[in-house]
Amino acid sequence: MCWGAAQGQASDQALAQGQVQTLGKGLTLTPTFNLTETWTSNRDLSSVDRRPDYVTQISPGLSMRAGRGPLQGTLSYALNGLIYADQTSLNTVYHTLASQARLSLLDGRAGVEGTATANRQIVSAFGTQSNEQALNNANQTQVFSYSLAPYLTGRLLGNVDYGLRLNYAASHTNETYTGDTSSFSGQANLTGRLGLFDWAFDLSRVIYGSQNRSNSHIGSVGGTLLYTPDVDLQFRARLGSESNDIRTGQSERTTTWGAGVTWRPGPRTNLVADYDRRFFGNAYALGFSHRMSNTIVNFSDSRSLQSAGSTGRTVLSLYDLLFAQTASIEADPVKRDIYVRNLIAANGLDPNGQVIVGGFLSNGPTITRSQVASLAYQGLRMTVSVAFVQTQTRSASVDPLTGDDLANGVRLRQKGATLMVSHRLTPESSVMLSFGEQRTAADINQAANDLRTITATWTARLGQRTTVSLGARRARNTSETTPYQESAVFGTLNLRF
Questions:
Q1: What are the structural domain ranges in the chain?
Q2: Could you say which of 267, 330, 392, 447 has the lowest number of CB atoms within 10 Å?
Q3: What is the architecture, at CATH level 2, of domain 2-496?
Q4: What's the predicted TM-score (pTM) here?
Q5: Cα–chain-centroid distance for residue 328?
Q6: Tens digit of pLDDT for each residue in 41-98?
Q7: How many CB atoms are closer than 10 A to CB 284?
Q8: Residue 392 contacts residue 409 (beta carbons within 8 Å)
């Protein structure tokens, strides 16, 4: 197994050398500081008024992890200040946050789950496209999202279990009402066993809210029958009813039904297939994953109803791929997290590096089909990640006067592909080359666009807590309305305290 030969005791070394401060039982804290200097040939991403500029980005941050006790979760936050040398009026501050937590009470029978995220995101898929958040792009805005979900579980009679759950989720954007949405849901379920079958009965209701449109709802009641003839094989059948006013604005009731199967022929292979007939048509989810000693392969194809907010945005993290691949090396998720982050850093990769189809902000529920295929390979000195993404999105309403990209019946189609190759030159330095392409198809008086980006980066460690990177990139956006070309060189200093 070449992972161990390459990295040895990566996580133990990180702890021994003080890269992570332990605060109490199971709680770790890592302060960070990033300084990035960038020279860009086209600060405003314009085809007619190309203005070069020097951009300084200062990003103090904090990373926390709780892996034991009643409170468990992760938090990664940075406050990002952008300073433009030639246009100080553009100076701004934005936040990046990724967090999730779970507080367990009553021996796990009750608790609260929560998430919070913040980032700059694309407003319109037909506007100026860019993966760089430090440039002056009017088609990007700060988006804050969070959710809070209290729950209660227990046993009623015999082997009948119950579950109650509430969930409130909201998304807020700066400088635009597009994407200012919320949802409130309540769920109740009963589960038990009857002979050779497991069964479940579910009751739920969701209310969607938006700044630009009246509230809508969807309520459902249904039952599921599960048959597990073998520990590696499970069959499912579902029958129920839905009531909603999403499609027409008037309440309508439909019968729903579906079936599914899960097959795990081995500890490294997983296959899942589900199909449901719902009020908006066919809903399905296909998933396949196979993990080898050096490689992990994933494929998924799904069609489902999505809430409003950041829509069509497909995020596939290199960290997630490697985290799944190293399950055979380190079973404990907290120790594996440390192992993977040190492994990525040792190979000069970005721990938060992501494959993204930029998506857009929406004001109402959408019907989205998403297809993702990815492969990640980790050798002794080389890491390779390849991913292909395709999404198709339309409004769930038959009269989509939504005020966003899906207004007037637009069907938005996006494709993306990314290749990342990293080679470790020495134990302390590495080089990385990445190529990405994202295409948005034209539809109903909306012009298509095609963004291509290539980036080369050299990274070296200056001690156990300091990393320096130097790189260059070239971006080209082909579009009838927002074309541009941009070149840049940059350098980053990263400190972990």
A1: 2-496
A2: 267
A3: Beta Barrel (2.40)
A4: 0.82
A5: 24
A6: 999 999 988 999 999 999 999 988 887 788 888 888 999 999 999 999 999 999 998 8
A7: 16
A8: no
